[in-house]
């Protein structure tokens, strides 16, 4: 069995290591907070690993790999999964 620390070993190189954790896990999310967190992710050398981990692990909270929880949930469904309501 693989240890959790090995699973997220890439996190040691994350650009968010020097950021306030509440920027990524805010008590009350806001558009401004999401934009600022995503800007950090945008210059992170391990963004691909972080995003893949969050999607694989089903992380439900926080910004991971430049994605909000809502964006991660949406990404699990094909683009045309939702059909318009019948009229
Ligand atoms: S992609 Fe964002 S959340 Fe993930 S390690 Fe990098 S800065 Fe942190």
Protein described:
The chain has about 90 residues and is an all-alpha fold. The chain has a domain at about 30-80. The chain has helices at about 5, 20-25, 30-40, 45-55, 70-75. The mean pLDDT is about 90. Iron/sulfur cluster (SF4) binds near residues 11, 44, 47 and 66. Its cofactor is [4Fe-4S] cluster. Keywords: 4Fe-4S, Cytoplasm, Disulfide bond, DNA-binding, Iron, Iron-sulfur, Metal-binding, Transcription, Transcription regulation.
Q: Percentage of helical residues?
A: 40-55%
* Distinct compounds present: iron/sulfur cluster
Mean pLDDT comes to 90
N-to-C order of helices and strands: HHHHH
Biggest sheet overview: none
User: What does the overall shape look like?
Assistant: globular
The number of strands is 0
What layout of secondary structure does this protein have?
Elements: H1 4-7, H2 21-24, H3 31-42, H4 47-57, H5 69-75
The structure holds iron/sulfur cluster.
Iron/sulfur cluster binds at residues 11, 14-16, 24, 40-41, 44, 46-47, 50, 63-66.
Question: Quick recap of the structure?
Answer:
Belongs to the WhiB family. Acts as a transcriptional regulator. Probably redox-responsive. The apo- but not holo-form probably binds DNA. By secondary structure, this protein is an all-alpha fold.
């Amino acid at each position: 069995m693989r240890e959790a620390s090995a699973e997220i070993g890439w996190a040691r190189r994350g650009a968010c290591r020097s950021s306030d954790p509440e920027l990524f896990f805010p008590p009350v999310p806001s558009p401004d907070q999401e934009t600022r967190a995503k800007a950090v992710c945008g210059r992170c050398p391990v963004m691909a690993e972080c995003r893949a981990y969050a999607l694989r692990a089903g992380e439900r909270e926080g910004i991971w790999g430049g994605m909000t929880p809502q964006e991660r949930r949406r990404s699990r469904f094909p683009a045309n999964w939702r059909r318009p309501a019948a009229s």
